[in-house]
Please model this.
Amino acid sequence: MLQCEADIVRGKRVLVTGSSTGIGEQIAYEFARMGAHLLLTARRDQQLKEVAQKCLELGASSARHVVADMNNLVSAQNVIEEARNKLGGLDYLVLNHVGGSGLFGAFRGDMAEVTRTMTVNFLSYVQLTLSAMTMLKESQGSIIVISSMSGRIAAPFNLPYCASKFALEGFYSSLRRELHLQQTNLSITVAVLGYIDTDSALKIVGDKIIMKASPKEECAREVVRAGVLRHREVIYPYWSIKPFLLLKEWMPTLLERFLDKYFILENIL
Model:
């Protein structure tokens, strides 16, 4: 199966957002091992250069980078133009970047934070998708969207983030149906992720929840595999999240009471 996936990806053109660190960095390495042409984007130039160099060492056909701030939708459009100019098209659009203040606590009614988070975590995803749509249709390509269990089950203490993930789920599920009805061969894979051991996640919630973080390397492998095989969704870690998703439909109140026990309130409030 791994060889089959590598054969599918070799020589394909891949844009990975938020690829200077965390899950995005690991996704870039997975595509590199399969011989893809990579365009990496994030806000940090030096880290992007280092990731691009490692991608080349791992076997990428090419690895370029462009610095961009997804709080600016014009910047998001420019990234797609860079993909057009540097790659000549696009086969995989991996939407992984995340924004906001990184705060985890009771909501204080900060509308600026809501606007900022929705712009980076939702509106820029939509802008990138719309700008890349012509290229993706031409290549009959794939979109991989990094979502979260917080996009399926309402979670306290990070309301703007949760809202942005719910918005992603609604938009890309609707877009998938439209593409199907239009008989457009463009796949959309939504990755529903749990608590992953990225540096940012460990820093923000490491002392605030009672839960073991799953490895980002394995997470990236599962996400890339699902995207390459054109699955509609991937859930990781599966057995930690799937029971909660089922309980949400069957016994939502019981689920909320159960999940509430994971929070260390004295470190949050």
Q: What stands out?
A: The two ends are 47 Å apart (CA to CA). The chain has a mean pLDDT of 95. Residues 111-139 form the longest helix (29 residues).
